[in-house]
Amino acid sequence: MPWPSVAEYEAPTAFFFSINTHSHLSMSSEELIAALAAELQAPELTLNAQGVCQFIIDDGMLINIEESKLEQRLHLYAEIAPVPAMERENFYASLLSAQLFGQEIGEGCSFGLDESSSSILLCRSFRCSGLEPEEFIDMVGEFINWAEHWHLKLSGREVENTEEESVLSAEAPQESYIRA
């Protein structure tokens, strides 16, 4: 059957969509961070005058949450390793391989280069609107787990191997294409 001409095309008469009417449709970054502070039992955890919130996790890693100046968005980032002086190509290749289709990196996370400190950052960015406090807390927790994982891995220390990781590292037949 041939495609209808533009003159024959009939526009749909009804559209179906849903609107999120939940009360937290426009959570502010301050409210999200206040929920995180309550969860961590750290009332001092707030945005400073520059719109940045920082805290140190158990192993001494600094976690940063920064407000976007352009939109209602938060950026979550942590320095996970210095860029090595030698074998940089292999170092960068390992980061890019891990990031391919999220094979070994958290959902929404990416690696970045902070040229001023010559270090690698693990980053994640998300909109505040529509984000529930529980979702935000879970995202921060997952991010911290990935930051610790990569900090250990890139520092040459042993990373705990889980069943899921061992399944992912099992030898698979080579294909001539990339599979997501």
From TrEMBL:
- InterPro entries, per the entry: Tir_chaperone
Q: What is this protein called?
A: Uncharacterized protein
Sorted alphabetically, the Gene Ontology BP terms of this entry are: protein secretion by the type III secretion system
Q: Which domain of life is it from?
A: Bacteria
In Pfam terms, one family for this protein is CesT
State the organism of origin: Prosthecobacter vanneervenii
